[in-house]
Amino acid sequence: MNLVLQGPAASMPELRRIATLALPARMLELNPHALRCEQVDDSNGVRQAVELAALEARVDATFIDAARTLADYRLVAMDMDSTLITIECIDEIADMQGLKPQVADITEAAMRGEIEFAESLTRRVALLAGLDASALQRVYDERLHISMGGEAMLAGVKGAGLKTLLVSGGFTFFTERLQERLGLDYTHANVLEVEHGKLTGRVVGGIVDAVGKMQTVERVCADMGIDPEQAIVIGDGANDLKMMGIAGLSVAFRAKPVVRQQANIALNFTGLDGLLAILG
Question: CATH number, domain at 57?
Fold first, then answer.
């Protein structure tokens, strides 16, 4: 097993101090804030000690099979809101109506798994009825930002020959623009209904919920002629768990506790490009 330690504010001496807890045979500095430790002790007691020390230092600690590399995978599938981008688009749209607190509360409950996603989306979208559709462009132009390390991660996986999928319980207005902007291969999301230039408060067609996300990953894998085991799936909320569960590697990014607990990898402090350090 290898251990990868990384943190945007971590010093190399600090990383080396944590690394010694795992008794590595070798240590390799990947960049000024990332260290790979080879042939480590990954017993439960050591893992717990390393993870506790890493958490206190705001460092991500990942134990991973030394043989795993990006070459083992063919697809990276990502959630959009609070994963590839820093915002929840529906919350920011609601802010244009002065309804952000009400909508954000529902969003949070859904991401924690306390409300079924389809129900939560229906309730949130209904609150947007009557809003001028131009608000969507304002959110994209003024508030949407790519998460830390997102563009570097995409460049790295594309360079390694992987395809990319953005699958979202959000809206096609944003996924389509991000697809063009970032050169993504596949996207799938919900369609907001617009009549006479205003949002109706309804979604057109079926809702992309947890099952819909999983089925999208399965469909894209089938189209590519690969097994879902050859996919990496990145998400942050409870509605990502089903698609993460079928993947060969699941990554929790700035995720809710229920997601961190079930993912293979958790990036709590590092950017999305932390995936590249882990998989070489």
Answer: 3.30.70.260
CA distance 36 to 107: 37
Q: 160: Cβ–Cβ under 8 A, 6 or more apart, which residues? A: 70, 71
Catalytic one among 79, 236, 240, 273?
A: 79
- Residue tagged active-site, from 42, 65, 72, 81: 81
Q: What is the mean pLDDT of the chain?
A: 96
Asked if 209 is an active-site residue, the reply is: no
Is residue 44 in some structural domain? yes
Cβ 94 vs Cβ 124: under 8 Å: yes
Each residue's pLDDT tens digit, 140-193: 999 999 999 999 999 999 999 999 999 999 999 999 999 999 999 999 999 999
* 29-62 residue pLDDT tens: 999 999 999 999 999 999 999 999 999 999 999 9
Q: Could you give the CA distance from residue 59 to residue 27 in angstroms, rounded to a whole number?
A: 16
132 is catalytic: no
| Structural domain boundaries enclosing 52 | 1-67
For the segment 85-97, the average pLDDT, to the nearest whole number, is 93
